[in-house]
Amino acid sequence: MTEPIISVTDLGIHFRRNKARRRSFKDLFAGSARRSRPGEFWAFRNLSFDVAPGEAIGVVGRNGQGKSTLLKLVAGVILPDEGRVRVNAGVAPLIEITGGFVSDLSVRDNVYLTAGLHGMTKAEVAARFDEIIAFAEIEDFVDTPYKHLSSGMKVRIAFSVIAQLDEPVILVDEVLAVGDKAFREKCYGRIDELLSAGRTLFFVSHNERDLRRFCSRGIYLDKGKLVLDGPIADVLDRYNADYNNPTP
Amino acid sequence: MSTTTPPRPRRSRAERYRSALWLLTKRDLRVRYSTSALGYFWSILDPLVMSGIYWFVFVVVLDKGGDIGEKPYIVFLIAALLPWMWFTGTISDSTRAFLREAKLVRSTSIPRTIWVARLVLSKGLEFLASIPVLIIFAVIFGAQANWNLVWTYPLAIILQAILVLGLGLIVAPLVVFFRDLERAVKLILRFLFYASPIVYSTLDIPAAIQPWAALNPLTGIFALYRSGLYPEQLMVFPIVMSAVISVLVLGIGLLVFRRYERAVLKEI
């Protein structure tokens, strides 16, 4: 067995149920922050699994069961309260992809900025720049301020940058629901390419067809626990049995 | 599509930190200067207008030119107002360090201290760019520079960077939970402007209170900034105190930041 590329051990994270509740200044000086206060709940606990390089994993579960949270933990954009996630390779997170773009700057500046924040050097961005723009099909808007792009174009360029990161691990969080059908197909094509090039995929979706298309292994999260970790077909069958919503 | 390219070599943590910090700093400066025609001019106009006002009030109206601060008073003012702009700009911006960049913070995994460090750096670069103004005024009004300048000025910059980073690391995460802090910080900054030796000199303070003034780390830092032009400002006790307090503040800042980091990421 090869060294796992992602290793999740006893992972747990909790959130506050009532976001609007403000903390008082007293909390600032209160003791242990680890103890779960009333109004806090665990999104999940004691999650453990390993991912081998090249695996494609689909995360299955109902809304609010922590699928996106798990993805964010793997991406390192939030931190666990318990346990740990070890990722032994670079990550290309397709999560909130338009987040890094600044509306006042041109598309060109934004591409360099976002790619740079994800760890690319200037030379690497320069080498891929034309490809990124071509994939997003916005050749005529390279020097346009980002805010003047249509929302479709914004998503396209954002996807294009992350998809060109060439990191060994790709995280996809239902971002592909946006954009027109043709572009969505193109994105899927790109993911297929990356998979066949041996990348590791972590995929969150409610779409059973997409899950079956890309993933070989499934992880089923429910009620704060890892219910099943196995071949994607088994996981989907179990999920459908539990919530009895057969898809066409 | 070039799916054949091998995965890129991973860069070290320090290298990634540096490049992300530099990228965000450059972005800050570029956004600020690409959206306003006068750009650089704005960043020096503010301290200049302030200096003009205080010079008018104290020298022209109250005729205190002889017994407040040191002569030439306008140079004395500018020498502390320029670093004050760096201080107040960074601290007040750090109240929005996470809130304004929430989307970007949520989508990248760069070390979170960068969100504060980039403010310290971009405001610091603006401060460095404003130093020629001080030089021009010093030349015009005939302020005498001495050789201490060679070490006191850089030391002042380093101490201030440490202090401002420490305070920013305390303020930035706490504001996410205590929104009132944003207003409190504004008020404290205004108070601190008069509680620090900017329009006056530490030597103008009654001798009995002077040791207490040294508890404000800005006292020693501004004294250092001025000592290259005004040798009497080279006061050992406040300067040593400011160094100790600045390092202490940075230590506290790192602790506070580490404790609140995960909660901040969930909250924004």
UniProtKB/TrEMBL annotation, chain A:
Signal sequence annotation: none
Keyword match Magnesium: no
Positions of the ABC transporter domain: 23-248
Gene3D superfamilies in UniProt: P-loop containing nucleotide triphosphate hydrolases
Molecular-function GO term, any one: ATP hydrolysis activity
GO cellular component: membrane
Keywords recorded for this protein, A-Z: ATP-binding, Nucleotide-binding, Transport
Similarity remark: Belongs to the ABC transporter superfamily.
PANTHER family membership: TEICHOIC ACIDS EXPORT ATP-BINDING PROTEIN TAGH
Protein name, entry field: ABC transporter ATP-binding protein
Organism of provenance: Mycetocola tolaasinivorans
From TrEMBL, chain B:
Topology class, membrane: Multi-pass membrane protein
PROSITE patterns: ABC_TM2 (PS51012)
Classification via InterPro entries: ABC2_TM, ABC2_TM_bact-type, ABC_2_transport
Localisation per UniProt entry: Cell inner membrane; Cell membrane
A matching Pfam family: ABC2_membrane
ABC transmembrane type-2 domain mapped to chain residues: 38-260
The keyword Cell membrane is assigned to this record: yes
Regions crossing the membrane: 37-61, 73-91, 127-147, 153-179, 191-214, 234-257
Entry keywords, A to Z: Antibiotic resistance, Cell inner membrane, Cell membrane, Membrane, Transmembrane, Transmembrane helix, Transport
Top-level taxon: Bacteria
A Gene Ontology term for the protein's cellular component: ATP-binding cassette (ABC) transporter complex
Molecular function via GO: ABC-type transporter activity
Main location group: membrane
GO process annotations (BP): lipopolysaccharide transport; response to antibiotic
Family stated for the protein in its record: Belongs to the ABC-2 integral membrane protein family.
Name of the protein in its database record: Transport permease protein
Protein source organism: Mycetocola tolaasinivorans
